Amino acid sequence: MTQEFDYEKLGFKAGLEIHVQLDTKKKLFCRCPVLLRTDEPDFYVKRFFRPVMGEMGEFDKAMLREFEKGLTIIYEGYNDTTCSYEFDETPPFPPNKEAVDIAIMICLLLNCNIVDELHVCRKNYLDGSVPCGFQRTIYMGGGGYIPIDGKKISILHVYLEEEAARKDDKKSRGKIVYYKLDRLGIPLVEIVTGPDMKTPQEVVEAARRLGTLLKATGKARRGLGTIRQDINVSIEGGARVELKGVQLLDLIPKAINMEIKRQLELIKIKKELNNRNIKSEDIQENFVDVTQIFKNTKCKFVKKAIERGEKVLALNLKGFGGLLGREIQPNRRFGTEFADRVKAYTTLKGIIHSDENLVSYGFSEEEIKKLFEQVGKTENDAAVIVVGEEKEARRALKLVVERAQMALKGVLEETRQVKEDGTSSLIRELHGQARLYPDTDTPPFTISRERIEEIRKKLPEYPWDAVKRIIKEYNLTKEFAEMLVYDGLHRFFEEIVKKYKLSPVLVASTLLQTLKALHRDGVPVENLTEKHLREMFEALSRGMFAKEAIPTILTLWAKNPNHDLNYIVKEAGVLAISEDELKEIIQKIIQENLDLVKKRGMGAFGPLMGMVMNKVRGKIDGATVSRILQQKLKEITSNK
Amino acid sequence: MSENAYEGYRGKARKILEKFNVKVWSVVEITTTIGVFRGIILPRYQLADDKHITIKLPTGYNTGLNVDEIIEIKEIGYEPGRYKLPSPSVKPDENKPRIPLLGCGGTIASRLDYRSGAVIPALTPEELYSMVPELADIAFVYPRLLFELFSENMTPEHWIKIAKEVEKEINERGAYGVVLGHGTDTMSFTAAILSFMLRDLPVPVVLVGSQRSSDRPSSDAAMNLINAVTLASKGDIAEVTVCMHGTTSDNYSLIHRGTRVRKMHSSRRDAFRTIGDIPLGKVENRKIIMFKKDYRKRSSGNVVADIKLEDHVALIYFYPGMKPDVIHHFIDTGYKGIVIAGTGLGHVSIYLFDAIKRAIDENIPVVMSTQCLWGFVGMNVYETGRNLLNLGVIPAMNMLPEVAYVKLMWILGHTQNMDEIRKLVQTNIAGEISEGEPYNGYVVLQGGIPEVDEFIKQL
Fold first, then answer.
1. Which of A3, A50, A496, B432 has the fewest CB atoms within 10 Å around its CB?
2. B311 CA to chain A: closest CA distance, Å?
């Protein structure tokens, strides 16, 4: 799969944009806690957004498109964790110093230069994802690199910005879009690499390295969606396309190859249209109202729409015959590109075109014939129809015309959403720089060179160096060492091992395997903080309980994170017992099973061990139990 | 080279621009000790330091480069700011009600200089109809800029100018209603003084502004403007009113009487509140719903702008520990009237009594309002109040302190006779004094809470 194309010959280039949420206590421009919530919100705020007129008396095209959708935005907030900054009723507070320091640290790790005076800028978004209508974002620096297999991948820019609100898909419907304000304002660092990667494998490597580096700082938030990567892809003769939503590294080569295929197909279509001698002026907004033709159609959704008073509008695309049906990605045809556009910018579900099997829609031969007649479709043309309220349907056909015009030019600069199978669909055209302007609410602020040097002194070691060192120092397997470092757990691991003189393997397996296993079993381990774990390891080192009790204690504590350890240990019934107490228990069990012992002698060890362990598991370690039980059995059998 | 070529740059920063012969709007390549930057040199904030050069990078981001780290600046172009008028997609219909939109400052209609972030007033018809094309459906709105200033810089002279212009629009140009675009900070002062000045008003005069300027996608300006124009063209209330967001959501605007309204929040959209009563009504989805019945109805005939006023009046906010020299100062510097925002039912400390007595002896009326804002002054309840009354202090009933202030200015423009002044202060002229306070006057306007929103919906 990865060697599907000759990438060099194609002039393939790719770059990455990595977004990482920072693990700060508070948000970037207000002092609200970072807390994602699932309970019902306390309040809702309704808003509409409008495009802003620029100095040239014009509106940004992307903003106009968003506005034409006519969305109603509803924000969901909580009385105790949402402040009025977050629903755009209070100016921003000064940027969170902790976040700025982490951003500086990331710049330094990426060998970037940091500018002396930071300016907060606004980047317009009209989709409601930011209640102000703009995201506040800061250029931190650039001109850096990270080394990968002897090659340097350049880091062009590093930004510090506020995370957008998260869409509430459960509540959103049609033109009413709900956003939860809890994610808004989490500090986010965006890292932009140069277009230096020449194969999909290099993209995977770069993404892996950057992701690892960020996680290993211990300052990145953990969990789903906390690190996101967008891939910028282009080939010679194609265009720069931004692929979003590629969360899994394994999907990267697939998504890239699918995009290359799409661009190659679009270039072919462009050539084909040139061969057919189709010019821009051949593609006109000649819309025909064909509602009458389909008044009694057997196609149910069209009939219902007409009954609701909607219109069926049609258009003839001269010279496009056969092209709309051409496959450009698996299960995606050139016609899908048109439908995507309609879906992205209107509330219609898509289009119907003549390269599809129209009969299977339920249209009769008669209806199809009339349709073709009325729009003037010849064999070389393609007819497109849309169904919807007249105004919306007109907008949809305008978008179809626009897309057809662009087909003459080939590939468009777009942002696309990647699906699990690697294919992608249009989100929007690439934003221009016109949407950026200074934030007049926040004055520029200086980053002193002393502050940078302070941070440089405390810079964490690179993860790839840390792995090597940990293997050597703690005699761990490579797998364990990598997991510790890549999850950003190695600092905590080292602290515990050194402070409490515990076995490195025990600490690592608790952090890496036990917690994961409990999580799989549905234990809410996310309630356990480093403080909980530190306390538990400390008590273990004092012999408060045996290491076998760890899963029981963690389970109980995760469910009751506000209780203290003494309570949990008592509740779990794993408080350590002395050897004398153990001897008593063993004595008692032997007495109860005297027959067995008499019959099997030392052979009774197995079953008895099981019985004793059932009583003392976690209270004293198994080796001690085994030793004493053997001793006792020997005494009895030799006394016989 | 003009001063503007170095806008905001001084000291070291300016020297380096001069040294390399570049200026604001130069497209440059700057070599520094931390790398090479391309971009456009932007104007700098007036109060910013002199240690940095602000540039706009090719990505659109702004950043500040340390002057000490700059090695060389090369000019490779020059792109000064350019401004163009838009061509709106709608045409106003001259047969619709004629509504002048008089610009008195504020950001109700403004656009953005994307490069510098500057907000540019945009009150030409082209700009207005491009930004809010919905207005063409409602009325024939014709914008006119009276002046452009921050509303805290408003003076009584500006109020007089507005009153005269409103008079002209109504009497000479057949305005069916008037909308005033105004900065929100002192909007309630202007609304109050116009309520006194515009006698025999035959049509609505609506003040409107925005709490989020119209250069922001989330601005409240468009909805406020649409609702204000709706009120001016379809409303039958011939009074001076303020029409602004009723809640933080883009739901409806509330209609506030000009003498009972106050800005009660520094930044929220629903900052404006009617105090001591419920609002007059609301505007929602182009419809006007009145909550109250006792308002002045539309009529034919002319308005009279009665613009005489005395601008030497002081508004004093009493606080514990206030020294009497505060009041002596106003007497000594020739002030003609004093309004006090006193505590509770209308009190000040006993230490001020002598100074107050001196003022009244020198024929300077002293009017007492309450800094509680809600409720009447009640100066017979406690000894302090009775003593103040005895000194000749005039209780302001339930007039808001700011309203009492502009009313006293206006009264003093007409008479210096203490008895007449006393009578006029205590006579309701423009809804500034109510006969009593309704139960829900206090409850309703705490605002924003779901029960309240529900309640207003039901009104």
1. A3
2. 34
